[in-house]
Amino acid sequence: IVLTGGDDHLWKTWGFPDGNILLTGEGHTDWLSGCCFRPSGTQLVTSSGDTTVRLWDLSRRGCILTLRGHSRAVRGCCWHSCGDFVASASADGTSKIWDVNSERCKYTLRGHEDSVNSIEFLPFSSTVVTSSADKTLSLWDVRT
After folding, report:
1. Is the pLDDT of residue 144 over 90?
2. Hey, CA dihedral for 72, 81, 84, 64, is it positive or negative?
3. What is the enclosing helix (H) or strand (E) of 104?
4. Is 24:11 a contact under the CB 8 Å cutoff?
5. Hey, CA dihedral for 3, 47, 39, 41, is it positive or negative?
6. Which of 14, 24, 53, 73 is most buried, judged by most C-beta within 10 A?
7. What's the chain's average pLDDT?
8. How many domains are contained in the chain?
9. Domain holding 100: CATH number?
10. Cα angle 95, 42, 54; round to 5
11. How far apart are the first and last CA of the chain?
12. What would the pLDDT profile of 30-82 be if each residue is shown by its tens digit?
């Protein structure tokens, strides 16, 4: 199964090798910039130009949580390997760490001077790497 998101505001799961669409999700009001399966495989997260991050439950075939807090387009998203946290990177110059259990932003990471274009948790750690239009990479320990 492959997961994609696009300018049509939709995410899709595709079965391979046939290439048929298995599921489609709608709810964002602007382009999708990122999409990622939860490590357990039962949910996914998407980020969008509409400034939101959304969590989707594949068995319910719908959005179960919309995370709001960025003031500009969200450029990327990812899951922590434990499945309890989502990270987002935004054109507003910040990144956020979201606790999906409490449904709240746990940390806002500030320090880049321009759009944060990507974010990724290092596997099995509390370290996040971000890349920015300010031509820097930053490593963050989200515990501190």
Report:
1. no
2. positive
3. strand 104-110
4. yes
5. negative
6. 53
7. 95
8. 1
9. 2.130.10.10
10. 35
11. 36
12. 999 999 999 998 999 999 999 999 999 998 879 999 999 999 999 999 999 99
Global pTM reads 0.94
| Distance (Å, whole) CA 79 – CA 134 | 24
Place of tokens 């998101």: 5
31 and 6 Cβ atoms separated by less than 8 Å: yes
* Full residue range of the structural domain in which residue 113 is found: 2-141
- Edge-to-edge, what's the strand order for the sheet holding 127-132? 116-121, 127-132, 137-141
Angle made by CA atoms 14, 18, 19, in degrees to the nearest 5: 35
The answer to whether 62 and 53 are in contact (CB under 8 A) is no
What residue type is 40 in one-letter code? S
